[in-house]
Design brief:
heterotrimer; A alpha+beta (about 1000); B alpha+beta (about 90); C alpha+beta (about 180); A: about 1000 residues; alpha+beta; Ubiquitin-like (UB roll); FAD/NAD(P)-binding domain; Gyrase A, domain 2; seven-stranded mixed beta sheet; six-stranded mixed beta sheet; 23 helices; B: about 90 residues; Folate-binding fold; four-stranded antiparallel beta sheet; 2 helices
């Protein structure tokens, strides 16, 4: 029911949305919950376990009951709190966890079975037989219990993450937060004021208080105007600070487009990482319920929320409202409603000595002991010293007192302390370094107290960052005392709910205590209390009080569970914002990329790089056909391959050679200028890290080549060695990977090709195998290396990357004229397998130099990284799996990498495992599959037959073990 | 978590990579396997309190840092360039 | 003899203008990494090119001839071809082709970067002439403030397409907020 003249909604801007298909009218400024309440809708959801009918209880992010689904299809969002979702024209809202409908929910039968669903029922009921859990029980329970469902379609909404920095972060824009921001802002500090509501003001928008003689919202607007005019204050509405993390970093979730019918290019949400020197927590307090029999009827609401719906939205939550509380703040609900003309059925105060006045029935020393009305409250039972009375009412506003919203102070493992007078936990200083809780979040519940505390909090923060506060007048406001007498549970026959969201009752907590789950952490896990999306905001303290009572301890001795981030649920889409599609990882493209794609080469990922698999030609129907042709092309004519992705590290300084001797197993100080050497690099634990070639361009200048995938790792490693182990050496490292476009020119006609491309031709005498130097390449100063990864007479030619595409096109056209062309990763792989060259398929992080047959590359003349560890007996013991070649000799000719090796007649089971296959390829050169793998004691077993078994793909093949170098073992071709 | 890089100033942890205890600086001087090598490679203290760690500012200056961090409070107490620590004979 | 055509890292990708931010490719001229050799004199840079060897986090010189700190013990000389006299004092590499250099300008530039960099870019913390090696999205890069509302960004050349894409996405998102 709307009350004329009340509320901050814009009555000139009506809007319509739907709830389960039915039209709802609201106004700009409404939430889904306020608009539904305004039209008298009480039933908004079904409970998690028992499918009990539930109505909205609160008006904030702590709402346990009114969880709804918005949107449809890809835009569907489950578990939206109706209290936080702003209403807008065309919004589609649906109830959830009910079937076939919210009004008639068949799964409400669960409620009848509730005696079986008490605390620990999972553990007791579904123990046996064990197999049934996965197949039967869990799917059944998951279907019956639960919250909203995902659509199953990819979320197409935009999400964003961002960083912000400030001197003082103020969390919450109620009276304390506004004064804190004002004080800090006037002093010139960079301030971020974040509030999770769509409109700043906190409880000042929900109460009828005056500040400095003005209505609360008017005062709020004046303060906001001043803050907005400051250049140093950033106001962030719709922003929940979700976590307090190390060193002044706070997570915050901003709802950017969720309140708009068409957000356009706006993100739906932005996840902020805010870094600040100091933070002022002015998050207010949350009202807590009282556990009395059947306290979960739709229409039973928090007293502060009932008052708030009236003052903020002009909505009376009922026609005949009863109020039940144990403290003075509840009285204001009756006063405000009565003043607005709403009938007050009763004001019930559990305190016998409560001072109450009002023109409505008042019961002191009384309790609500029962309720009626399944889908909406119709009446309550009030028990007084003289007996039980039935009171007709469609809305019961309850207040068990207030809990400071201190959640963030606990995020770094701090523990709050129990305050006897307030019957609440309060934060203690420095639970989170740099964060101070003020106002209601610190147990200061009067408006005047909150305003003053905000100023004090800001002054402390300013002092801490060395800024001088400017004087701020504290406005006049109500300064009422907060008198309450604890009341947690009202006894009765029916169930009394503690955790509405997870359907945990007083009985469940008592049962947990009886079954000796008496520690608060055990009780929580046994009953699931506090484990729902509201994370116990509505139930923790009450449950704790029940547990304390049941175990005969006080609340302080019983302790409290701690709060962890996030303060409110955060969608994974927001946390992972931007990291899908193109945003998942950077794409690295070589200079030949466009030309390769134009040649229809399928691209494969190599780390972040994209490299061509093969270059299909007309008539080639399979990749194998292209690959076979490319291999033959390199063996018989000339092939071109982009090898720019290999890491290139420039190493200079007078100690560069000494440094290389230290990081490589073999000697580099003996390398002549103008020559290249293959190097093997170990980790300090003796395992192979990487391999590659290093060229000496000058006495004090080398260029190291790393594998594509290990480039980053090797760079970090070399920097570690240079800085942390040998900082006295004069060594200068820098990546030049991106500076150079580098192409392999491989095959018997490579010299002929380069002779045509190099401005000065190619003098065979000047370019023996493993030579390097500069060369003028089609008018551009480049570098030339005579190295080979194919076993053919080959070169790598490099030019500055801007010329890369030009050189690629030139080399391809020259190669094609000679009967060659481009080759891709598939052919490159076959060529290197034919030669027994290793890649990271072989040096995969578990193999030693000896395993790959390079044990003798560890120089005895010098120390190097990994030398000591590699000398351990076990790293070169016989019986280790050693690199071998494999060729099929049985009926099955196919080899598969990942397959395991067994002795020919042994059963293919784990205990008989002899090794595994790491790389395979079909060699057109030798007309057979070839494989590389590791076999126990393999070097001594050449000529033996073993059985390859791929259990996964069901393939078996008999192989002959051989030397890993299948082709041209003498190396005549590479030197030719 | 923030790390005060001596060169770059206070930076977000995502710019850094952790490498383990700063024991890594104390590489034994000879290449014969020994108990010293065993403890250098394999043995680590697990203190509840201050500990020195290696962090690489790979998305920043490229420097290797020795970061003193309290494992109980997560407080980062100091960060020094590894080269300076090693150079000073640590 | 065929001559090779030069192609810039962001050819065909920029300029882009969205809302109050604009992105363009910057032709940096020659980029040379300078790392002071043991016994070298960093003053040689001033003698040869007129700008001081920059302190960590700083850029010296002016548009067209800048020295931008680029990491531990290292700076990039950006613009002029390096004087031969530098060779005695610095380990040098040509980096001219290794980087995509982008200019991001406009009143929204800082907000755009807030979507990409975990860096405190407040004008009194990160002033004109300040530079940082940091993350730009998932990429390591370099950010230099060259004006009140303008930044030079550098990422590896191979990632130019990703960089432009990510910056453009951030520009659109910031602009959409109005």
């Amino acid at each position: 029911m709307r009350i004329d003249g009340k509320g901050l909604i814009n009555r000139a801007a009506p809007l319509r949305f739907t709830f389960d298909g039915a039209g709802v009218t609201g106004f700009e400024g409404d939430t889904v919950a306020s608009a539904l309440l305004a039209q008298g809708t009480k039933l908004m959801g079904r409970s998690f376990k028992y499918h009990r009918p539930r109505g909205v209880m609160t008006m904030g992010s702590e709402e346990p009951n009114a969880l709804v689904t918005t949107g449809r299809g890809a835009g569907q969002t489950p578990n939206v709190r109706a209290t936080m979702q702003e209403a807008f024209e065309g919004l589609e809202v649906r109830a959830q966890n009910a079937w076939p409908s919210l009004d008639f929910d068949l799964l409400a039968a669960n409620d009848l079975l509730s005696p079986f669903f008490s605390a620990g029922f999972y553990y007791k009921t579904f123990m046996w037989p064990a197999k049934f859990w996965e197949k039967l029980y869990e799917p059944m329970i998951r279907r019956a219990a639960g919250l909203g469902a995902l659509s199953g379609e990819p979320d197409t909404g935009l999400y964003e993450k961002a960083f912000a920095f400030c001197d003082i972060l103020v969390i919450g824009a109620g009276p304390a937060g506004l004064m804190a921001a004002l004080t800090a802002g006037r002093a010139g500090a960079d301030v971020i004021l974040a509030d999770e509501d769509a409109r700043m003001g906190g409880r000042l928008l929900a109460e009828s208080h005056e500040i400095d003689g003005k209505p609360g919202p008017v005062w709020v607007d004046e303060v906001l105007d001043e803050l907005e005019a400051m250049g140093n204050v950033r106001l962030m509405t719709r922003t929940s600070v979700t976590g307090a993390h190390d060193d002044g970093t706070y997570g915050a979730l901003e709802r950017v487009g969720l309140h708009m019918a068409d957000p356009g290019a706006r993100p739906l949400e932005t996840f902020w990482r805010i870094h600040t020197k100091r933070a002022v927590l002015a998050a207010g307090a949350l009202e807590r319920p009282i556990a009395f029999p059947d306290n979960d009827r739709p229409g039973v609401m928090m007293a502060g929320a009932v008052r708030g719906y009236l003052n903020r939205f002009g909505v009376a939550a009922g026609q005949r409202v009863a109020v039940f509380g144990n403290n003075d703040s509840a009285h204001r609900t009756a006063q405000d409603l009565a003043a607005a003309g709403v009938e007050i059925a009763a004001l019930i105060d559990s305190r016998a000595d409560a001072k109450v006045c009002g023109d409505y029935p008042v019961y002191t020393g009384a309790q609500v002991t029962g309720t009626k009305g399944r889908k909406g409250l119709t009446g309550i039972s009030v028990t007084t010293a003289t007996g039980v009375q039935q009171v007709e009412s469609d809305c019961l506003a309850i207040s068990g007192g207030w809990n400071p919203t201190l959640n963030l102070t606990c995020h770094m493992n701090g523990r709050p302390v129990w305050n006897e007078a307030l019957q609440a936990f309060l934060p203690v200083p420095d639970m989170v370094p740099g964060l101070e809780a003020v106002g209601a979040a610190n147990g200061v519940f009067s408006t005047a107290g909150a305003l003053a505390a905000g100023v004090d909090g800001a002054k402390n923060a300013l002092q801490a960052i060395g800024k001088k506060p400017v004087s701020v007048d504290i406005p006049k406001a109500e300064d009422g005392t907060y008198a309450l007498s604890p009341l947690w549970v009202v006894d009765g026959k029916s169930r009394a709910w503690l955790d509405f969201q997870n359907d945990v009752t007083v009985k469940d907590v008592k049962l947990a205590a009886a079954e000796n789950y008496a520690s608060v952490e055990h009780m929580k896990r046994y009953t699931t209390q506090g484990m729902a999306p509201d994370q116990g905001k509505n139930s923790n303290v009450n449950a704790l009080a029940v547990l304390a009572d049941a175990t005969g301890r006080g609340i302080p001795e019983t302790g409290t569970t701690t709060f962890r981030p996030p303060f409110v649920p955060v969608s994974l889409a927001a946390i992972g914002a931007g990291a899908r599609g193109k945003g998942f990882a950077p794409e690295r493209f070589t200079t030949s990329h466009a030309a390769s794609v134009a040649a229809h080469a399928p691209m494969i990922e190599a780390g972040l790089w994209y490299r061509p698999s093969f270059f299909p030609r007309e008539g080639e129907k399979t990749w194998r056909a292209s690959c076979d042709r490319e291999v033959a092309m390199v063996r018989n004519a000339v092939g071109i391959c982009d090898v720019s992705t290999l890491g290139k590290i420039d190493i200079q300084g007078k100690d560069a050679a000494q440094f290389l001797d230290f990081v490589y197993t073999n000697m580099f100080s003996s390398l002549k200028v103008g020559r290249v050497r293959y190097g093997l690099m170990l980790r300090e634990d003796g395992i192979v890290m990487d391999d590659g070639t290093t060229a000496r361009l000058a006495d004090d200048h080398f260029v190291m080549t790393t594998t594509t995938v290990a480039a980053g790792q090797v760079m970090a490693h070399l920097e570690f060695v240079a800085q942390a182990l040998v900082p006295d050496l004069d060594v200068h490292l820098i990546s030049t990977t991106e500076q150079w476009a580098q192409f392999a020119v491989a095959g018997p006609k490579s010299r002929e090709l380069l002779n045509a491309v190099l401005d000065d031709g190619l003098d065979p005498e000047a370019w023996p195998f493993m030579a390097c130097g500069t060369a003028s390449v089609a008018g551009v100063e480049g570098r030339l290396f005579r190295i080979s990864f194919s076993g053919e007479h080959a070169y790598e030619v490099a030019v500055p990357a801007r010329y890369g595409e030009g050189l690629w096109r030139l080399l391809i056209s020259q190669a094609e004229a000679l009967g060659g062309g481009a080759y891709g990763m598939e052919a490159l792989n076959v060529l290197r397998i034919e030669k027994g060259f290793i890649t990271h398929a072989e040096i995969h992080g578990r193999v030693t130099a000896d395993d790959v047959g390079m044990g003798r590359m560890i120089s005895v003349k010098k120390d190097c990284i990994g030398k000591a560890a590699a000398s351990r007996e076990g790293l070169s013991a016989s019986g280790r799996e050693q690199l071998v070649g494999l060729r099929p000799v049985g009926a099955v000719k196919q080899l598969l990498s990942g397959a395991h090796l067994f002795n020919e007649t042994a059963e293919a089971v784990r205990v008989n495992d002899q090794g595994y296959v790491t790389s395979v390829g079909f060699s057109p050169t030798m007309d057979t599959f070839l494989g590389l793998g590791f076999l126990k004691n393999g070097r001594a077993r050449h000529g033996e037959r073993v059985r390859m078994v791929d259990h996964l793909r069901g393939v078996e093949a008999i192989c002959e073990v051989c030397d890993p170098v299948f082709f041209d073992p003498e190396g005549g071709r590479v030197r030719g | 978590m923030r790390i005060p890089c001596p060169l770059c100033g206070d930076r977000d942890h995502r710019e850094f990579t952790y490498k383990g205890a700063a024991v890594a600086l104390d590489r034994p001087g000879n290449s014969d396997w020994s108990d010293d090598w065993d403890s250098y490679i394999h043995l680590r203290d697990n203190p509840a309190g201050d500990t020195d760690e290696m962090w690489w500012h790979g998305a920043g200056c490229g420097g290797w840092l020795v970061v003193t961090r309290n494992t109980v409070t997560h407080e980062v107490k100091a960060a020094r360039m590894a080269a300076d620590v090693k150079g000073a004979g640590a | 003899m065929a001559s090779l055509i030069a192609k810039s890292p962001c050819a065909g990708m920029a300029p882009i203008s969205v809302g109050d931010a604009a992105l363009r490719e910057v032709d940096p001229g020659v980029i040379t990494s300078l790392s002071p050799l043991a016994g070298g004199d960093v003053g040689a840079l001033k003698a040869a090119h007129g700008m001081a060897f920059p302190a960590p986090g700083r850029a010296s010189g002016k548009a067209g001839a800048r020295a931008v700190w680029s990491g531990r013990g290292q700076a990039f000389l950006i613009g002029p071809a390096p004087d031969a006299a530098l060779k005695a004092h610095f380990a040098m590499t040509d980096q001219s082709d290794g980087w995509a250099v982008l200019g991001l300008e406009g009143t929204a530039a800082r907000e755009v970067l807030a979507r990409l960099c975990p860096l405190d870019l407040r004008p009194d913390r990160f002033k004109r002439g300040h530079t940082a090696r940091t993350l730009i999205g998932h990429m390591t890069g370099s950010v230099t403030r060259v004006g009140a509302d303008s930044f030079d960004l550098m990422v590896f050349r191979s990632m130019a397409q990703t960089a432009v894409h990510e910056i453009e996405e951030a520009m659109k998102s910031v602009a959409a907020r109005g």
